[in-house]
Amino acid sequence: MSSMAAVQSCPAPADRDLAALLARAEEVQAWLRGRASEIEQRRSLPPEVAERLVDAGLFRITQPSLYGGLGMDTRAAWQAVYQIARGCSSTAWVLGLSSANVVMIGKFPDQAQREVFLSGRPTIVSLLTGGVGHDIEVEPVAGGMLLSGRWRYASGIDVATWAGLLVPIPVDGKPVMHVVLVPADAFAIDHQSWNVLGMRGTGSKDIALSKTFVPDHRWMNWQVLQEGGRHATCPHHGPISDAPLNAINAMSTLAPTLGVASAVAEEFRAIVRAKVSPAAQKALVEDRVAQIEVATSEATLAMLRRALLDDADEIVLQAERTGGVSLIDRAAIRTRIAVASRLALRTAQAIFAALGGSVLPQGTRIERLFRDVHAMSSHLLLQPDMIGEAYGRLLLDLPLPPTARI
Q: Can you point out the beta strands (E) in 97-202?
C-alpha cells in the first residue's frame, strides 16, 4: 500500500472518537432493550439508566470541549440518539432534547456556562417552552430576580441537573420572553402528573418553583437564542455557537422519532421471519407483499435519516461560512424536519397495518412502539402546518406573520 493510500485509509482522530462514541451508544441500546418495559412502567428514567448514559459520555456530546465536553456537532448527537431510540424511546427522547439544550447553554454568558458545565454533575437539561408555564411571578432584585411559578412537561426532570424556563421578564416596561436557567433540585416535582398513552418513560412531569433567586447571567433573550445569537461574553465554541436553536430543537425531536420508526421496521422483520400466515398456510417471510413492505420501509427510513444528518451538516457549514443561517434556509430545514416526521409516521403506520392483530397484545415491543411513535410525532416542532405556512410565505415573497418563530 502506498503511503498516501495508508493516510487516506486511516480515520482522523475525530472520526475515531465518533466511532467509539457510536459503539458505546450501540452497547447502551442493547442493554436498554431489556429495560424499556420497566422504564415505561416506572414512568421516568431510573437513575441507573441516566448513569449508564453518563458513563458512556452521551450527555457530553454537544457540551463544549472548553468545559469538559466532547465538543461534537449535533450530527454526532443525532446519530447516538437514533441508536438509543432503537432500545428505548423515552431514553432517546430525553437524550435528544438535552443534547439540543446543551447547545443552547453554550450560547449563554461564560459565567453561566461555568456554573452549569463545571458543577461536578452531569449536564442533563430539561427545557420548558411553548406556553407550558403558569402562575409565573418575577420580582427584579439587585443582581437578578426572584422567580416562582409552575410548569408542565418537564421531560427527564427526575434525572435532570438543570431546567431552562421560558419566562416573561420586564424590559423597558414590556414583557420579553427569556430562557432562565435554574438548578433542577430547586423544583418540587408532581410525581402523579405524568399519565399518558405513549412516551411514558420520559417522566415529563409538572414542576413548581417557590420564590428563588436567579442571577442575571443565567437568563437570555429567547428570540436571540432562536435566531442563533449568543451572549457577548460567550466563548466561541466553533460554528455551533452561531447556529439557530429552532432548527436544532426540531432535530432533537426528529432524531428519536426516526429511531423509533426504524425500531418498528426492525420488529416487523423479526415478526415476518417468525410468523406463519393462517390464511395462506405458509411462512410470512415468503409473502411478496411482506417482502416489499420490508424493503420500502427500510429505504424510506434510510433516506429520512440521511436527510436529517445532511441538514445537521448544512447548519454548521452555513454558520461557519456566514456566521449564521438565513431565514429562508432555516424555514426550509424546519419544513423538511416536519415532513420527515410525517413520512416516518406513515411508514410506521403502513407496517402496523400489515401486521394486523400482532400489534394488539399489550406488553409487546411492537405495541409499545406503536404508542411511542404516535406520541413523538405529535410534538409541536414536528407539525408541518405552522412551519409550512411560514416557509410557503417566504417562497412566495409574502411577509411573515409577527408570531412566526423560525
A: 125-128, 133-141, 144-154, 162-171, 174-183, 188-190
The answer to whether residues 196 and 337 belong to one domain is no
| Residue 279 pLDDT class (50, 70, 90 cuts) | low
185, 129 contact by CB (below 8 A): no
The pTM for the full model equals 0.94
Confidence of residue 276 (pLDDT cuts 50, 70, 90): confident
User: What cell does 126 get?
Assistant: 430539561
User: Residue 324 maps to which CATH number?
Assistant: 1.20.140.10
- Nearest Cα residue to 49 out of 81, 91, 80: 91
Rg value, the chain, Cα: 22
What's the pLDDT band for 9 if we cut at 50, 70, 90? very low
DSSP code, position 135: E
Whether residue 235 lies inside any domain: the answer is no
Q: How far apart are CA 195 and CA 320, in angstroms?
A: 43
CA 96/CA 250 separation, integer angstroms = 10
- CA 384, CA 49: separation in Å to the nearest integer? 33
In terms of domains, do 209 and 264 share one? no
The total number of structural domains in the chain stands at 3
Rounded-to-integer distance, Cα 164 and Cα 181, Å: 5
CA distances to 155, 322, 357, 401 from 131, rounded to whole Å, are: 15, 32, 39, 19
Tell me the C-alpha distance between 96 and 253, whole Å: 7
Q: What is the pLDDT of residues 355-386, one digit of tens each?
A: 887 777 888 999 999 999 999 999 999 999 98
pLDDT digits (tens, 9 = 90+) for 147-193: 999 999 999 999 999 999 999 999 988 999 999 999 999 999 999 99
Domain boundary among 101, 117, 133: 117
